[in-house]
TrEMBL record:
GO terms for biological process: metabolite repair; nicotinamide nucleotide metabolic process. This is Bifunctional NAD(P)H-hydrate repair enzyme. Catalyzes the epimerization of the S- and R-forms of NAD(P)HX, a damaged form of NAD(P)H that is a result of enzymatic or heat-dependent hydration. This is a prerequisite for the S-specific NAD(P)H-hydrate dehydratase to allow the repair of both epimers of NAD(P)HX. Bifunctional enzyme that catalyzes the epimerization of the S- and R-forms of NAD(P)HX and the dehydration of the S-form of NAD(P)HX at the expense of ADP, which is converted to AMP. This allows the repair of both epimers of NAD(P)HX, a damaged form of NAD(P)H that is a result of enzymatic or heat-dependent hydration. PANTHER family: ATP-DEPENDENT (S)-NAD(P)H-HYDRATE DEHYDRATASE, ATP-DEPENDENT (S)-NAD(P)H-HYDRATE DEHYDRATASE FAMILY MEMBER. Its cofactor is Mg(2+); K(+). It comes from Gracilibacillus salitolerans. Belongs to the NnrD/CARKD family. Belongs to the NnrE/AIBP family. Pfam families: Carb_kinase, YjeF_N.
Length: 503
């Protein structure tokens, strides 16, 4: 499934109209009829339906929905919230179609009037504003949205809750709080931003006949799902040996944080890595080896010194490195040596990200791929922004950072946004609130380390890793666990169940 900005959606519509030869009027008819059909499946015909229509094409969808719902036997009234001259083009065409067969059109000019009119209805269908919204919401629409939000009736939004922009990063002003949104064709960015997804209520997409090629040409974002995982997941070679399944290195684990590297190493092995070496301080080795006997060890005198020739020679055999889990924030030369002296794919997580911030220039010179896996707080630190700013703009901030520093960004959250250095993005929305617990990030790093070693293409490697991590948590919560008791170690053990669904 593709995710779009407003500009991309307009391009996609234009492509369908120009290249596909499907007139705008027909697309609008398809949109309205599809939404109406979904409504029919959910609401009895004795529910009184009010459609609030604005002046753009979203309002045009509203007139089409009115016509189809009336045809299905509902009592429908359209409340037109703008002056007649504002309704143009395809929307005017469909308004006329509605008027050809119905006289149920009421002009409403202020919010008090709207409130009085709507009290008699069971459901309000919000076709006030679509993806064409811009700037602060103007009166009287602003107060009208407020009135609708305060009415104790069901609210269904068409395409997007009115007042909400499609793109991330825009300050949200006044928005319909929908119970349900029928999104036309492709979800917009704001459906996957923590601050704004809430306005959509439950949502589903309706198809209106736009060819897939339009998306391939004009969209740069996908929501990852099982279909994509199956298409991109590497097959395990029958004749594989441990060396051909990837030799990974996990570096980290201060004295106070040995658990982080145990989790990462175990997760990497459970995900299918052939060999995992843990490089850490002497005191941690007995702790780590008792919990992860399959790993091998490389002794580091501390986590701050430069790497010795002996270290570098040992690491030459490695296919990829994950660094930072439990490494602490003390000044350290370790990361700069890994960047400068080894050409290995490098995944940097947790405290490693604090060490990476002053090394962004050298990272740009690193020949092998670099992956960073920040949560919102770490991303805010890296970009000198605030956490609310990162939450509001997860797509644009990740993209700017990935393009500028030529690295892969896995911005972790309810909706994890994965970005390639060329700006292509994937959203992984698997997982649940059980993952909001210490250690789950270390598990993800371990899984990603293995995925990086085993895939040819890195963006799908990272997306598949996030999928495995989230799905493991989902299956565990559906069966043996709850979001409350789920532990990071459970997520590692749950991986086998996810792998079984992929074969
Ligand atoms: N071919 C197409 O383009 C299709 C478009 N569709 C619908 O069309 C919508 C987009 O249509 P439009 O581009 O006409 O945009 P809108 O329907 O969002 O309407 C934009 C209009 O809203 C008003 N407006 C914008 N910002 C405002 C603000 N801050 N305060 C108050 N009023 C404001 C302006 O008068 C502007 O002309 C989509 O969301 C979707 O519902 C669907 O019918 C499918 C086909
Ligand atoms: K709307």
């Amino acid at each position: 499934m593709y995710i779009v900005t407003a500009e991309e959606m307009y391009e996609i519509d234009r492509y369908a109209i120009k290249k596909g030869g499907i007139e705008g009027k027909i697309l609008m008819d398809n949109a309205g009829s599809q939404v109406a059909q979904r409504i029919v499946q959910t609401y009895d015909t004795n529910r009184k339906m009010a459609i609030v229509a604005g002046g753009g094409n979203n309002g045009g969808d509203g007139f089409v929905i009115a016509r189809y719902l009336a045809e299905y036997g509902y009592e429908v009234t359209v409340f037109q919230l703008v002056a007649d001259h504002k309704i143009k083009g395809d929307a005017a065409f469909h308004k006329q179609c509605w008027l050809n067969t119905s006289d149920k059109l009421t002009h409403v000019t202020d919010s008090h009037q709207l409130k009085q009119r709507l009290v008699d209805f069971d459901v309000v269908i919000d076709a006030i504003l679509g993806i064409g919204v811009s700037g602060a919401i103007r009166e009287p629409i602003r107060s009208m949205i407020d009135v609708i939000n305060h009415l104790p009736i069901e609210k269904i939004s068409v395409d997007i809750p009115s007042g909400l922009p499609a793109n991330d990063g825009i300050h949200v002003d006044q928005v319909i709080q929908a119970n349900k949104t029928y999104i036309i064709e492709a979800p917009k960015e704001t459906a996957f931003c923590e601050d704004t997804s809430i306005y959509y209520g439950e949502w589903e997409t309706v198809k209106i006949g736009i060819p897939q090629t339009a998306y391939v040409k004009h969209s740069s974002k996908k929501r990852w799902c099982k279909k994509y995982v199956r298409a991109t997941f590497p097959k395990r070679d029958k004749y594989a040996h441990k060396g051909s399944n990837g030799r990974g290195l996990v570096i980290g684990g201060q004295l106070t944080m040995p658990g982080a590297i145990v989790l990462a190493a175990r997760a990497a092995l459970r995900s299918g890595a052939g060999l995992i070496t843990v490089a850490t301080v002497k005191e941690n080795i007995p702790i780590v080896s008792s919990s992860c006997i399959e790993a091998t060890y490389h002794l580091l005198p501390n986590l701050t010194n430069r790497l010795t020739d002996r270290d570098l020679e040992a690491f030459e055999k490695i296919d990829a490195i994950a660094v930072g889990m439990g490494i602490g924030r003390e000044d350290s030369q370790l990361l700069s040596d890994l960047i400068e002296k080894l050409d290995k794919p490098l995944l940097i997580d947790a405290d490693g990200l604090y060490h990476a911030k002053p090394l962004l220039e050298p990272l740009l010179q690193h020949k092998a791929p670099v992956v960073i896996t920040p949560h919102y707080g770490e991303m805010a630190m890296l970009t000198d922004k605030t956490v609310p700013e990162v939450k509001r703009s997860p797509f644009s901030i990740s993209r700017q950072f990935a393009e500028k520093h030529q690295l892969y960004v896995v911005l972790k959250g309810k909706y994890t946004v994965i970005t390639a250095p060329d700006g292509e993005q994937i959203v992984s929305d698997q997982g649940n609130a059980g993952l909001a617990k210490g250690g789950t990030g270390d598990v993800l790093s371990g899984i990603l380390l293995t995925m990086v070693m085993q895939h040819k293409e890195l963006l799908s490697a990272l997306a598949n890793g996030c999928y495995l991590h989230g799905k493991s948590a989902d299956y565990l919560v559906e069966e043996d666990h709850t979001e409350r008791d789920l532990l990071a170690t459970d997520v590692i053990e749950g991986l086998s169940q996810v792998f079984r669904t992929l074969s």
